[in-house]
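Final report, Chapter 2: Outcomes

The project's central promise was a pipeline that accepts a single protein chain and returns its three-dimensional structure in a standardized token representation, suitable for archiving and comparison. That pipeline is now operational. To close this chapter, we reproduce one record exactly as it appears in the project archive, with the input sequence first and the structure output second.
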Amino acid sequence: MTVSLPLVLVLGAVAWIAIKFMGVRLWVAVVIALFGFWLAHTGIAPSVESGTRSSVDSVNDQHD
């Protein structure tokens, strides 16, 4: 059985768990999210995206 989830949904769930159960402050999560948005507009964004895609693909290949 194959289940397909968007990465943003998984990361959102991890952030919610961190805030709810691990004691991470909401403002810290907001700062991290803003950093991600600003990072997306820099020259390093293509490298981050390709690294993320490669990591996700390697995890998916292990489960096939």
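Archive annotation: Residues 45-62 form the longest helix (18 residues).
This record, like all others produced under the grant, will remain available to the consortium after the project formally closes.
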